[in-house]
Amino acid sequence: xxxxxxxxxxxxxxxxxxxxxxxxxxxxxxxxxxxxxxxxxxxxxxxxxxxxxxxxxxxxxxxxxxxxxxxxxxxxxxxxxxxxxxxxxxxxxxxxxxxxxxxxxxxxxxxxxxxxxxxxxxxxxxxxxxxxxxxxxxxxxxxxxxxxxxxxxxxxxxxxxxxxxxxxxxxxxxxxxxxxxxxxxxxxxxxxxxxxxxxxxxxxxxxxxxxxxxxxxxxxxxxxxxxxxxxxxxxxxxxxxxxxxxxxxxxxxxxxxxxxxxxxxxxxxxxxxxxxxxxxxxxxxxxxxxxxxxxxxxx
Length: 299
Prior knowledge:
Elements: E1 10-13, E2 16-19, E3 25-31, H1 52-65, E4 69-73, H2 86-103, E5 107-111, H3 115-124, E6 128-131, H4 141-147, E7 151-155, H5 177-194, E8 200-203, H6 212-220, E9 233-234, H7 240-245, H8 260-272, E10 277-280, H9 283-296
Parallel strand pairs: 3-4, 3-10, 4-5, 5-6, 6-7, 7-8, 9-10
Antiparallel strand pairs: 1-2
Helix pairs in contact: 1-2, 2-3, 3-4, 8-9
């Protein structure tokens, strides 16, 4: 049986504690990549590197808008994305993490599945490792997380990002998507526990190797993942499956820039279905959604 201590209450992460019982938590997305599907390149300078001052201002603005966690990522995980070396990923993320640690006491997450990157980020001041592979891509990563007492986000993905396509449906026999995701995440939790990592969060991996219908089925049945005994993170911000749902008859699928209203609707549903953490591009709007959900739970 899973250890239920993190279902609600305190999440311990590298010497910090997050009170999950206080209500929905907002995780702001900081992409330091030039090719992310929505905001790629926005934090880069004219010479191609990350503009640290611009990135710091961006992070501080998200904190002011309501983000409790800043998730820094140096490699795009959009479908078909190019691979990035660990060294390049470190160059893109670690100086920003160090600067943010100096200027703010916000909880910092490193979005990576590479042990080498995670170690450098945790050494620089990160508290959480957000692994899209659920500990399946790099066997050295759990030991690094244990060493630094980091909390972890364990996400479900069927395939590596460079192999995905926007419309891909990663069917595995006749098994339902909710069952498939639950089974995968249960194995990830068990693997984390073998490394004495009990502060974990589960993420169903919206948009990662799933059909449009599968994504919506997951969203509608998100509360099924509560049986895993872990806080649920939902990352639906401006994703492709939302664009498909709001495409007018005979029209073109709206680009990510036109998916904000759909994103807010999906985030609200996720919270009502049991999500504790929202990973978002638009912090103020997500915080407003969380406030409405919080208000419905008051006696």
